[in-house]
Q: What sequence folds into this?
């Protein structure tokens, strides 16, 4: 029942108990109590309905709810990572330093809207124009302190959003607390306090969709309760918005001084682009990946296991483990090539993600995770697994169209480009996977590999675009890679949208 149905029944009940109570207008304070009860019950029902809905992965929209639902499956939603960029500080106009210039750790810089900080202090020496090469990170450091209330299952929310989850460090009066099972060495993060004992100084962070982090502590049975003052150091920033191109424009935000305390003007230059920062795992991604964790219980036995583990690496959107089972791949028995696709920079108009080549660091991370002896998800012995960048097949599109009334040629071309970008994207704007995939994962009606980017699907995508009245009926009305037919991929190839040419048949077939 809604609030007003509840109120009507309360009024009927009140009249039955007290017949003299027949005026239910707000002239009488007692009626406010009835309305308050109806409102509170309605709110409680709404909360219960929402919690019930959030109990199912197919409908969950709250990130914290998804984290809790995924924990029993052994799946963890990854936090955001911060882009890093290498470069040098230098003095303007080719000047040389007459006094040593001090650049403290944490010096803040900006490139557009992205904020960076210097990770390690450095200097411009006397007689030099520039510093040694250094690294900036797309992050800002924060420190918060609070007093422990000595309660079980204590939760401390951090006050600043866009937290980089891996950066959280906790120091209480009784010592440092860690989010890892074996602090001080490369170790797996604690997913649940069930994994630890009463004396383990542990915490578990959870980050909501806005990047607001909550730091959870134990109950003295599973995980120690911190005592005294709790100091939490963490970084904010990161994500895809922090990526910068080579030779970006920079502004040094903090004052810089020489060793005598004189103010000095310094500039920064980066000859290469930043490493890619990535947004935290979205709920849409987790809906797809969390159930796969049931198949991969800390070891890789088959192709699906390898593909799942590869996609645990930040920035990896798709993976395909190609073996001798796929024809014409050149892969020998007891060998697997694990081809990986990264998220490219999202399209500015739609937010969809194009496929991109993974970095060497990403491939190394995957190789380390599946290492037979030391990996957290070791693959079976006797099989050689190699993590490789995807083999891309570029797809060119040429199409002849007639425009709808009220649309300019430029607008129709832009709409077609956006539609094709979405069709060939590796993930949508919430990073949920699209249907585009490696050749042997494109299936026919019987579930067998089809290997095709269907010509008719591309035709339908363009024909359904806003501003397209119809596609020409001539024989070369739509060409994929200059041929009027579907594109057949090899088993290990991944399609990538390339050049798009649109011909305006309302204007004698002129290319837009």
A:
């Amino acid at each position: 029942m809604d609030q007003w149905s509840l109120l009507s029944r309360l009024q009927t009940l009140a009249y039955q108990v007290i017949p003299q109570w027949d005026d239910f207008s707000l002239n009488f304070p007692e009626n406010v109590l009835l309305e308050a009860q109806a409102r509170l019950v309605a709110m409680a029902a709404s909360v219960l309905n929402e919690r019930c809905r959030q109990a199912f992965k197919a409908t969950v929209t709250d990130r914290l709810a998804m984290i809790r639902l995924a924990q029993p499956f052994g799946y963890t939603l990854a936090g955001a990572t911060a882009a890093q960029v290498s470069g040098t500080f230098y003095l303007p106009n080719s000047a040389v330093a007459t006094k040593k210039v001090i650049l403290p750790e944490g010096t803040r810089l900006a490139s557009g809207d992205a904020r960076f900080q210097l990770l390690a202090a450095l200097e411009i020496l006397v007689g030099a124009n520039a510093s040694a090469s250094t690294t900036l990170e797309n992050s800002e450091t924060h420190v918060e302190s609070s007093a422990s209330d000595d309660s079980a299952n204590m939760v401390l929310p951090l006050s600043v959003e866009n937290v980089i989850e891996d950066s959280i460090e906790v120091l209480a009066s009784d010592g440092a607390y860690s989010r890892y099972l074996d602090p001080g060495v490369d170790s797996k993060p604690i997913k649940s306090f069930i994994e630890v004992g009463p004396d383990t100084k542990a915490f578990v962070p959870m980050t909501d969709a806005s990047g607001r982090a909550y730091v959870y502590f134990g109950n003295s049975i599973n995980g120690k309760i911190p005592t005294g003052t709790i100091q939490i150091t963490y970084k904010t920033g990161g994500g895809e918005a922090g990526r910068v191109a080579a030779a970006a424009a920079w502004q040094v935000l903090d004052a810089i001084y020489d060793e005598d305390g004189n103010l000095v003007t310094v500039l920064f230059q980066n000859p290469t682009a930043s490493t890619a920062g990535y947004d935290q795992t979205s709920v849409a991604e987790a809906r797809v990946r969390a159930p796969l964790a049931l198949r991969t219980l800390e070891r890789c036995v088959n192709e699906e296991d390898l593909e799942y583990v590869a996609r645990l690496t930040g920035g990896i959107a798709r993976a395909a483990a190609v073996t001798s089972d796929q024809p014409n791949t050149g892969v020998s028995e007891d060998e697997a090539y694990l081809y990986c696709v990264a998220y490219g920079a999202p399209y500015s108009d739609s937010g969809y993600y194009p496929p991109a080549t993974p970095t060497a660091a990403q491939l190394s991370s995957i190789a380390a995770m599946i290492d037979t002896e030391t990996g957290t998800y070791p693959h079976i012995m006797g099989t050689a697994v190699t993590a490789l960048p995807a083999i891309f097949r570029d797809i060119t599109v040429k199409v002849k169209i007639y425009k709808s009334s009220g649309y300019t040629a430029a607008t129709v071309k832009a709409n077609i480009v956006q539609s094709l970008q979405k069709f060939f994207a590796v993930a949508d704007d919430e990073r949920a996977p699209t249907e585009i995939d490696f050749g042997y994962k494109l299936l026919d009606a019987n579930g067998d590999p089809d290997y095709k980017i269907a010509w008719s699907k591309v035709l339908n995508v363009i024909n359904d675009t806003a501003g397209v009245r119809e596609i020409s009926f001539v024989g070369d009305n739509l060409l994929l890679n200059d041929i009027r037919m579907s594109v057949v991929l090899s088993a290990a190839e991944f399609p990538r949208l390339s050049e798009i040419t649109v011909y305006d048949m309302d204007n004698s077939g002129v290319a837009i």
